[in-house]
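User
Take a look at the entry that follows and flag anything odd:
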Amino acid sequence: MEEPHRHEVREQRILLRALAISFLMVMAVMGAAGAALYAYRGEVVRFLASEYVHERFPSGAPAAGEEGGAAGAGFLGATEEQIVSIVDRTNPAVVSVIVTQDVPVFEQFYEEYDPFGGLFGDQFKFRIPRRRPHGTEEKEVGAGSGFFVSSDGLVVTNRHVVDIPGAKFTILTEDGEEYGVKILAKDSVLDIAVLKVEDAKGRTFPFLSFGDSDSLKLGQTAIAIGNALGEFRNSVSVGVVSGLSRSIVAGGLGGAPELLDDVIQTDAAINPGNSGGPLLDSRGRVIGVNVAVAMGSENVGFAIPANVVKDIVASVQQFGEIKHPFLGVRYTMVNKSVAQAEDLPVEYGALIARGKTPMDIAILPGSPADKAGLKEGDIIIAVDGVSLKEKSLAAVIRTKKIGQTITLTVIRDGKELTLTATLEAAPE
């Protein structure tokens, strides 16, 4: 009975040896295949990618602008490639505005005090810490953004960025160069200021062009660039145009609140420090100047329309100061409640009315409105065919030129009539 048992043991050993050899051969093949895949991993990825593209696009890889289009080794989509190109082209024209000022320096000293007037010697003396002025030092007290609008160093920013008496202003370009600037003009109506590089050192500057803010559409791309939080220079955020012709009350630290109407709303992230930076369209043109953000909200920012800013820049270049077209009326914008209170025939328009004091007259004598024959109680409902249902009278007049003749549609005593007025430069 022993021989059959030995035969079975021999067969088991042969089987185990065969299995071990097979396992080693499989491992060797897998190792070789893995090494080959690693060595030619780039070709494998490209092959798989080409098979994926071929499966989705049998006619071949999609062209730029089509779904799945690739741009360079990064495989950027067409929209991403466009935005990257715009930022690359416009960023050199965006600057950080730095505000510095001489501020007092205080030193600490100790004053000895004895509540008993020295009755017990030095036993109950106390050293009380005090502070006293010890000269001044120049420190950064503010920061904002701006952008070049001419090759000779003309810069647009917000008025509130540079509305600091006794301060010194410099700009930092994207490449880290620093230039001193002077204030050429600050708009008394809008939150816009125009600066000029004092010593360009023979350099010409890249500058941005203005687009047409009147043709903006809801949902179109909006790109904001600026000195976010006054710390992160030339930061980029992307969103869309969220709203048009908004009216907001804006105010900052130390600044009085002011009404800004006809502004652009965007969800592109705008933070403190972005003020004065450009809002760009998908072609890299300026469609607005970032001015404010709704506090306590997420991605609700506002920009002053480019067409208004463009006229301000042109005025500074032509006259050396900001001049606005001027009609010469005091008015109240009509809404449903005003119409009911005043028993008016319409619920929109600009009601010409005097103010609360005798000096607040309705129509300035000798003004374009006076010459046109406008009267107190008239309701201007349209200017050059543009209805005042959605826009204020001031917003429409700002889009006009000094010396331009405009047509006013007016309601007087319940009847509609047409008057013409030639706009003049606003008085100081």
Notes: The longest strand covers residues 126-148. The radius of gyration is 35 Å. The chain has four domains: 23-59, 92-197, 214-319, 325-425.
